[in-house]
Design brief:
This protein is of the alpha+beta class. Helices cover about 55% and strands about 15% of the residues. It has 3 helices and 4 strands. A hairpin with a 6-residue loop joins strand 1 and strand 2.
Amino acid sequence: MVTIANDPSPIVKISPSNQLTALSSSPRRIITLMAAITPTEAQAYFKRWELVKEIELVELRRTSMDVKLRQLSALMASRGLFGVDPERENGVQLVRDRWACLRQALCG
């Protein structure tokens, strides 16, 4: 059982036996440490994810345009469920400044 700092509710993390979970010094951050795996285990891991990727691609191709548009509409409608992030505009401005710097460096 793991608890997050400043949060009384415990978090139970079920993980493979080679995975350790610990809290970092900063609040609300969990560090997951992985034990070393063999090359055979690594190949099996990547092979499983390739299969997942293929299945997702097949499912995406089979999904009708009507369903995709309804999902997009629901996603766009859910924007109001999340509060306004006061730091977002600062981040947007930072990205714009970086692009301006790149343009100036490349175009003169």
